[in-house]
């Protein structure tokens, strides 16, 4: 049916074009059918208008028939998901914009509901309700800068006076920084961020706002030195360096670079740090974010994104006087006799949570402030003791 209609339409257009060519466009030259005229008669102009009008009607009807027959019906859930999404069109989900992800998450059962980085958990929960899928809890990601060697802490090879852009600076002998792995500090990532989550510090290093960052990956793609990576927000202890130079060379170029001394490897209580290519690497699947390596690093190359770690408190009603917490404490902050209530030196406690995880009686909890946990106040002799 459709092929017959198409053939008929082609024949009508062919004959109409022939008539139009013979009547309106005169054939001139040797063998021409008519002679050229200085003025086109009015009847020929009217005839041409009628033919053009007829063609418009024919094409309009044809388009209407085709549109009605081959119309693509849209799932209403796609529109609901699209309205739920933040509309950043950042592509962090791996699809062509928000509409692409909306169509995929509705039509493909294998596409998860939590792939929208800017929307995070609230948007994932709404999409799960619309699509009927299960919203799994996902650790949010954040962009992090793996370099601390700003202008005051690193050496320069030469004075760069070209275009203030990292990509342009790389074309000039790899950039002006002595460390070929370090941040150049010209703000290309800041200009690439669509959420204004990046600002430049006074030392020419990017500062990423955790509240604004959506882990869209725009800054990662824009950085020519690849010093920005997407990482799990909960894994707040990172080796903030990408240099693969030997330790002696790192010291010449940067004051806060990793020198591969191995102290962090020996310090880590869960064997989560390894040395690879003259650089310490943290296995975040093993890391318990205790922060011990941060305290021990001689060059401050390990960065802790937790501004203030909570302290531990013991519930006297639960404490059985076991010495497990005292033995596992890496900074010797816990003391006490076996069978009696243990106490902790609050100034020594680093909030690593190792005592909390090993306490068999679950008597240790982590609290943000120095005060005891809010609750029913026990007798004076049994008030909570800081760990």
Plain-language structure description:
- It is a single chain.
- This protein is of the alpha+beta class.
- The protein contains 13 helices and 13 strands.
- The strands form 6 sheets. It has a 3-stranded antiparallel beta sheet with strand order 12-9-13.
- The protein is elongated and about 115 Å long.
- The relative contact order is 0.07.
- The C terminus is likely disordered.
Low-confidence stretches: 370-387
Oligomeric state: single chain
The helix count comes to: 13
Q: What sequence of helices (H) and strands (E) makes up the elements?
A: HHHHHEHHEEHEEHHEEHEEHEEHEE
Largest sheet descriptor: 3 strands, antiparallel
> What gap, in angstroms, lies between the N and C termini?
84 Å
Structural class: alpha+beta
**Approximate helicity band:** 25-40%
Rg: 35 Å
Q: What coarse outline follows from CA principal-axis ratios?
A: elongated
Taken as a percent bin, the fraction of beta residues is 5-15%
Overview in brief:
The protein has 387 residues and is α+β, with helices and mostly antiparallel strands.
Task: Please specify the SSE layout and strand pairing.
Elements: H1 2-23, H2 42-69, H3 76-84, H4 97-107, H5 120-131, E1 141-145, H6 166-170, H7 188-192, E2 198-200, E3 206-208, H8 218-222, E4 228-232, E5 237-239, H9 247-253, H10 263-267, E6 273-276, E7 279-282, H11 292-296, E8 302-304, E9 311-314, H12 324-328, E10 334-335, E11 343-344, H13 354-358, E12 364-367, E13 385-386
Antiparallel strand pairs: 1-4, 2-3, 5-8, 6-7, 9-12, 9-13, 10-11
């Amino acid at each position: 049916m459709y092929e017959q209609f198409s053939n008929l339409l082609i024949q009508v257009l062919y004959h109409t074009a022939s008539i139009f060519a013979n009547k309106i466009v005169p054939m001139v030259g040797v063998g021409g059918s008519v002679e050229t005229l200085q003025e086109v008669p009015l009847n020929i102009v009217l005839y041409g208008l009628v033919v053009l009008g007829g063609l418009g009607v024919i094409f309009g009807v044809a388009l209407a028939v085709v549109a009605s027959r081959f119309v693509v019906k849209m799932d209403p859930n796609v529109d609901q998901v699209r309205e739920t999404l933040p509309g950043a069109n950042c592509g962090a989900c791996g699809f062509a914009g928000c509409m692409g992800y909306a169509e995929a998450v509705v039509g493909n059962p294998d596409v998860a509901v939590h792939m929208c980085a800017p929307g995070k958990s609230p948007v994932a929960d709404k999409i799960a309700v619309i699509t009927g899928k299960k919203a799994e809890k996902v650790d949010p990601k954040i962009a992090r800068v793996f370099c601390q060697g700003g202008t005051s802490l690193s050496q320069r090879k030469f004075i760069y006076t070209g275009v203030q852009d990292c990509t342009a600076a790389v074309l000039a002998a790899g950039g002006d920084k002595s460390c070929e792995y370090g941040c150049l500090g010209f703000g290309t990532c800041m200009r690439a961020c669509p959420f204004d989550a990046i600002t430049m510090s006074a030392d020419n290093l990017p500062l990423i706002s955790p509240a604004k960052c959506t882990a869209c990956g725009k800054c990662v793609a824009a950085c020519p030195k690849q010093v920005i990576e997407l990482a799990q927000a909960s894994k707040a202890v990172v080796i903030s360096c990408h240099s693969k130079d030997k330790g002696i060379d790192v010291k010449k170029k940067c004051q806060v670079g990793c020198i591969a001394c191995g102290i962090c490897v020996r310090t880590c209580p869960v064997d989560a740090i390894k040395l690879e290519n003259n650089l310490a690497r943290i296995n975040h699947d093993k890391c318990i974010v205790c922060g011990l390596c941060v305290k021990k690093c001689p060059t401050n190359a390990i960065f802790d994104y937790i501004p203030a770690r909570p302290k531990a408190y013991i519930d006297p009603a639960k404490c059985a006087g076991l010495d497990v917490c005292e033995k596992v404490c890496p900074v010797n902050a816990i003391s006490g006799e076996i069978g009696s209530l243990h106490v902790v030196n609050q100034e020594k406690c680093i909030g690593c949570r190792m005592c909390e995880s090993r306490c068999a009686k679950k008597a240790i909890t982590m609290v943000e402030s120095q005060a005891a946990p809010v609750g029913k106040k026990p007798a004076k002799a049994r008030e909570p003791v800081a760990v």
